[in-house]
Amino acid sequence: MLRLAAIDTLISLQIGPVERIVLARQYDIRHWMAPALNELAKRPQPLGLEEGIRLGLETALKLASVRERMMVSGSNVYVGAARDNRAQNLDFSSAICATFVL
After folding, report:
1. pTM for the predicted model, two decimal places
2. H helix or E strand, kind and range, residue 79
3. 77, β-bridge pairs
4. I need a surface site. Which of 20, 63, 67, 73 has the fewest CB within 10 A?
5. Cβ of 71: how many Cβ atoms within 10 Å?
6. 100 — phi, psi (to 5°)?
7. Domain boundaries, the chain
8. Which pLDDT tens digit goes with each residue over 44-62?
9. Cα(21)–Cα(24) distance, rounded to whole angstroms?
């Protein structure tokens, strides 16, 4: 009873998806996981460094993999390899240097 009241209180606080995932793991609130992960996968910006640290390496990499497999083209959504073979010819050096501060 007390557990359910605490979970209801947390829901009313409208905490973000990363915090919901952390709390879901910590307190075994399984029904929070999929919606929170889905919310992160659908948002336009990728995970930030702090978010990835809080989620853990495995979760962060799996979520990144999910996001990379989703590609939107016009009104169609394709699930599969988001990387076009033509991407092999692109130079990502500037993005890598900026991301990793090299």
Report:
1. 0.65
2. strand 76-79
3. 72
4. 73
5. 14
6. -100, 5
7. 2-100
8. 788 899 999 999 998 998 8
9. 5
CA distances (Å), 74 to each of 3, 66, 69, 77, 82, in order?
A: 45, 20, 16, 8, 15
Element (H, E) at 65: helix 57-69
Cβ atoms within 10 Å of 60's Cβ, excluding its own: 19
Tokens at residue 1, please? 């009873």
Show the tokens assigned to 3: 């557990």
CA distance 47 to 99: 12
Look at residue 97 in the predicted model and tell me its pLDDT.
59
Token pair of 13 as six digits: 């606080």
d(CA 11, CA 3): 12
